[in-house]
Amino acid sequence: MIKIDELLKQTTSTPTVKYTVKDFQSDQDVRWCPGCGDYSILAQVQRIMPDLGIPHHKIVFISGIGCSSRFPYYMNTYGFHSIHGRATAIASGVKLANPDLSVWVVTGDGDGLSIGGNHLIHLLRRNIDLNVLLFNNQIYGLTKGQYSPTSEKGKITKSTPYGSIDYPFNPISLALGASTTFAARSMDRDPKHLQGILKRAAGHRGTSFVEIYQNCNVFNDGAFSQFTEKETKDDTVLFLEHGKPLVFGKERNKGIRLNGFTPEAVSLSEGKYSVSDLLVHDETDTTLAGILAEMTYKNSLPRPLGVFLSIERPTYEEEMMRQIEFAKEKRGIGNIDRLLRSGETWVIK
Amino acid sequence: MTTKTTKTTKKIDEATIRFAGDSGDGMQLTGTQFTNTTAILGNDLSTFPDYPAEIRAPQGTLSGVSGFQIHFGNRKIHTPGDSCDLLVAMNAAALKMSLSSLVKGGSIIANTDGFSEKNLKLAGYTDNPLKDGSLFDYQIFEVDITKLTEIALQDLNLSGKHVDRSKNFFALGMMYWMYNRPIEPTLKWLQSKFSGKPDIMEANIRVLKAGWNFGETTEILKVNYEVAPAKLTPGTYRNITGNQAAAWGLIAAANKAKLGLFLGSYPITPASDILHELAQYKNFGVKTFQAEDEIAGVTSAIGASFAGDLAVTTTSGPGLALKTEALGLAVMVELPLVVINVQRGGPSTGLPTKTEQADLFQALYGRNGEAHIPVLAASTPSDCFAMAFEACRLAIKYMTPVILLTDGYLGNGSEPWRIPESAGFPDISPKFPAASEAFLPYSRDEKTLARPWATAGIPGLEHRIGGLEKQDLTGEVSYDPLNHELMTKLRSEKIQRIAEDIPPALLEGEPSGDVLVIGWGSTYGAIKTAVLRQQLKGHKVSFLHLRYIRPFPKNLSGIFPQFKNFLVPEINLGQLLMVLRAEFLIPAVGLNKVQGLPFRAEEIEMKIEEMLSSEL
Q1: Interface test with chain B among A92, A103, A329, by most B beta carbons within 10 Å
Q2: Which domain holds residue B568?
Q3: Which residues of chain B neighbour A331 with C-beta distances below 8 Å?
């Protein structure tokens, strides 16, 4: 047994080691259903970890309840598989107690948007430097197939035999509405894109919100197939790239322009519109991010993937530490005997 | 200032006075000022703030009455007083609501301006009680406090609102004269409080002095009183409320343990003052996180504990209910966590500003599964310091959540406190494991059964925890039936072993007798007073007050066989009673009151005497 000060000394003097993917794989058997989209997401997360240059003892994965929430067991880092919906709140406490840590929240559409919706929106407005990976499969998997807050209206499930009458959340719009400083979307079936987005999220100072389309091949198979399958992907997905016009299509001959405040898909090959008529993506524009996010459930428009928004705002923990330093400077480092004797006291002899 | 010779000063041993007025009249502030001055004078004292849940209930109504009672004396004072000797009634509603707590023959200082026709109607009086002879049992002193305040401020050009808000200082000044207290401590307070608002400061100072001078010169008040300092243990004293004491106990424990202090909390009456208090001490490195709800309050604290801070969440009954699931998680992951429940009247929203002890069952049993959590209870406002410190010590040493029960009466009540030296605080030295190849997150200390606190960030100890059942030693997820039973027993045994580490319960009185009174929490003062009086009468009555309810102190089983009868007074329908009967098979009986009010000592005495007489 040794004291924490000595350990911290050890921590800071740890030489920079080159990590490999293997260093981030735990010894636990991965137990998702065969064919689950979670396997790919786990692989991509493990793949990018060595590139972050953060030693694995300084990384914490925190989850709630649901299929995706098994994730921390498979990472050879610190991990906390907590209770339903609360991962974001637990992670907030972890980060505030030790701002040195790289903290990742793994949640799902049920865990993060239903039971944990309140904690999620408050995390986003506070801008604590956490990375939130929301695996969206539009279904409750672990409880065997009830509709979720992102299931499409009319969805027939065990709990909605006549079709769901709930209108679904659009997670990116929700995050933007909660004043997130980073919002992005990717999918399990596009490893390269997902890796890029994960690295962007890791590099962002403040809360990074990443929605990841994830196929549940048991209870909601093919929910995103039109976006993930080769035959349709080019025409149904719009990859957002900062500073570039919004072009899509197999032949790269379609684009998005604004009609008033409403985005519309136009053809570039009919002579009516050219690239210069198209919207140019700007990750720092919150208004634009909102417009792009609203394209989500419009069938006439391609589904945007990529970084919707990435802006700078002081993080909660920076401001908290600043106040602590300010108070120490102004009032002197706290002394308990002085505190107990502050204000009115009197002596009995 | 000296008292004129035409007036007489009577020496008395103790007095109880009550300030009562509209919730906007500043009665809590007036009471607090009187308390601080009285404490500085060296009297022992106990206070009882009693205010409505509404911030500003409709003016002049019965529901808007805010009261502050203080009992002070030249001897040890254990309760805010069963009844008061003097009542300051700022309006008719205040009189009506407080009259039952005034002793027969007691004095009423009535602000006549508060007895207008409208005030009388709002209070439900058909005739003015000051005039209709209905108060013949009492001495009435009619003073137009509002008018006298206006006169004192007439050349200051203040708004009517500000003039009206100063009138409580007139009442305070009068009471300072009445009980021979100096006005200087309040002057000093006003000067620092209103340093940025010189006109308000000047107004309040003038009115305070006017009140004192009125007492000295008026023909109606002929007697004032002197209460000599109490003979208290030598030392440096201060006045402290339970909530402040709890907050400071947490800071002291974090300091002793050399850990950061993290509070995750959501505002709730009557616990919010702990959050307010801690938020002031960022220079101690205290992190206060006002969470989005009660659940985030506790779960953020669990996260902070995982990362190595001393983590705390503070709440009241309904909030504790919301934290229930997370407490089970804390039990499962075996991380230190301190939960302070400042109890209030329940169930549901209940009586937010009134006191009750009805969350004992919730603290002991309110979780799914076998989720044993140590439960401590503070007995007086200043005891909140010691017990908050103790909760932290046990949480860290045994790697467990700990619930500390206080209540609104303790949290808002105050008493003089002999300030301890930090050098004498019990040891808290968290031990963090060193990196090792064969690290086992669920290995245990042989003596305490605590698992190692491998806080996130320590190299070489990367491990995963969670709410699923753990395999013994490795902490991996396990569904093995025998392992589940083993872990359930280990978690329970760990809590039982705390009994080896806590002081024996203090038996006050003879070690055997006819009646043993057993209490817990804020009933301490009332029971103590009742038992002392019974002992003076020669009755064989002893008293045991429990500050540890799970586990119980080890000496209880040796004490109980020495008594014939057991009385358990509680501000609930008999919760400790049931636990004691179940665990020790003693034929205890309860004395139960659930009126949102503390016990009066005489209520307990009557019950003791009833038990003694049926004994004969």
Answers
A1: A92
A2: 507-615
A3: 283
pLDDT of residue B157: 86
**CB-CB under 8 Å, A11 with B296:** no
Q: How far is CA B286 from CA A222, A338, B296, B311, in A?
A: 50, 16, 18, 10
C-alpha closest to that of B299 among B244, B262, B274: B262
pLDDT at A18: 84
pLDDT at A6: 56
Within 8 A of A327 by CB-CB distance, chain B residues are 281-283
Do B307 and B214 belong together in one domain? Answer: no
Instruction: Report how many Cβ contacts below 8 Å link chain A to chain B.
Output: 232
Indicate the pLDDT class of residue B19, thresholds 50, 70 and 90: very high
Q: What is the ipTM of this complex?
A: 0.95
Comparing CA positions, the residue from B3, B242, B234, B18 lying closest to residue B110 is: B18
Which residues 42-71 in chain A show a CB within 8 A of chain B?
Answer: 55-58, 60, 62, 65
CATH of the domain at B535: 3.40.50.920
**Residue whose pair of structure tokens reads 């944990």 in the numeric block:** A116
Q: At residue B359, what is the residue type?
A: D
Q: Are A3 and B255 an interchain contact pair (Cβ–Cβ within 8 Å)?
A: no
Q: Considering only CA atoms, which of B579, B524, B574 is closest in space to residue B546?
A: B524
Whether B223 and B280 share a structural domain: no
Task: Please report the pLDDT score of residue B101 as a whole number.
Answer: 93
Q: Where are the domains of chain A?
A: 4-228+314-340
The last residue of one of the domains, among B227, B258, B293, is: B227
Query: Which chain B residue shows the shortest CA-CA distance from A73?
Result: B464
Mean of the pLDDT values across residues B596-607?
Answer: 96
**pTM for this one?**
0.93
- CB contacts, 8 Å: B301 with chain A: 93
pLDDT the model gives residue A5: 52
Which residue of chain B is at minimal alpha-carbon distance from A347? Answer: B236
A332-337 contacts at long range (C-beta below 8 A, 24 or more positions apart): A332/B283, A333/B283, A333/B284, A334/B251, A334/B255, A334/B281, A334/B283, A334/B284, A334/B285, A336/B251, A336/B252, A336/B255, A336/B284, A336/B422, A337/B421, A337/B422
Predicted confidence (pLDDT) per residue in B57-87, tens digit: 788 999 999 999 999 999 999 999 999 999 9
Is residue A336 within 8 angstroms of chain B, CB to CB? yes
Residues of B in contact with A339 (CB under 8 A): 248, 251, 281, 284
Q: How confident is the model at residue B273 (pLDDT cuts 50, 70, 90)?
A: very high
Is residue B324 pLDDT above 60, yes or no?
Answer: yes
Q: Which of B300, B332, B440, B479 to mutate to test the interface with A (most CBs of A within 10 A)?
A: B300
Is residue A15 very low, low, confident or very high in pLDDT (cuts 50, 70, 90)?
very low
Specify the CATH number for the domain of residue B385.
3.40.50.970
In this structure, the dihedral spanned by the alpha carbons of residues B217, B223, B224 and B225, taken in order and rounded to 10 degrees, is 170
What's the mean pLDDT in A10-35?
A: 80
Collapsed DSSP state (helix, strand, coil) of residue A83: coil
Which residue of chain B has the CA closest to A65?
A: B467
CB contact under 8 A, A4 and B455: yes
- Look at residue A11 and tell me whether its pLDDT is greater than 60: no
Task: Specify the CATH number for A4-228+314-340; select among 3.40.50.970, 3.40.640.10, 3.10.20.30, 3.40.50.1380.
Answer: 3.40.50.970
CB atoms within 10 A of CB B126: 8
Tell me which residue in B296, B309, B433 faces A97 most closely, judged by beta carbons.
Answer: B309
pLDDT tens, position by position, B418-474: 999 999 999 999 989 988 888 999 999 999 999 999 999 999 999 999 999 999 999
Taking residue B422's Cβ as centre, other Cβ atoms within 10 Å add up to: 15
CA dihedral sign, ordered B158, B161, B165, B170: positive
